[in-house]
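Researcher:
Attend to token order:
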Amino acid sequence: MTAYAIGHLRPETMHEDVFAYIEAIQSTMDPFGGRFLVHGKEVEVLEGPFPGTVVVIGFPDIERARAWYASDAYQAILPLRTRHIAGEAVLVEGVPDDYDASERAAALRAEAGL
């Protein structure tokens, strides 16, 4: 099942290290089947405060997403970003093609005893 690496980044000023990170990241993702789904786009905020931007990278599965993040190649370039850009990064597994939110709501309702 597809998995995603999602970054909520708040760049204040660009630095040469950040450019080097952007130039190198694709080669760290390629061995794990990673590809950018969202990168460098304006965020349209509909609710609440949301400073910064979003990056979304898709991977074939959660195992490959984890392996990419932990890889020596990615860990070697990661400080180029983290030293200069505040933010959070998460990995999350997607839902199957036949996902039905009402089934999830029923399960949550049952767990809550409602």
Notes: The chain has a mean pLDDT of 96. The CA atoms of residues 75 and 89 lie 13 Å apart. The helical segments are 16-29, 62-70, 72-82, 101-111.
